[in-house]
User: What shape does this take?
Amino acid sequence: MLSRNFSEVYKKGFVFMSELYNRIERLCKNEGYTITSMCKKSGASRASLSDLNNGRKKNLSAETLKKIGATL
Assistant: This one.
């Protein structure tokens, strides 16, 4: 039972973070950037966003979010 609940919470967390990646991607497209070009312009780590998208990372640092926000 506990492992099933943990699995459900993990999946919900993954969906949330994947949605964050999708929102960032949409904002990039609206501004005429690819994720990669936005990362280069902002100084944010492309690897962090890839990890977020693939579920290897569950959050982004405040510093990374500030860099992205300043660019978009």
User: Anything to note?
Assistant: Helices lie at 2-31, 35-42, 46-53, 62-71. Residues 51 and 57 are 5 Å apart (CA to CA). The radius of gyration is 14 Å. The chain is about 80% helix and 0% strand.
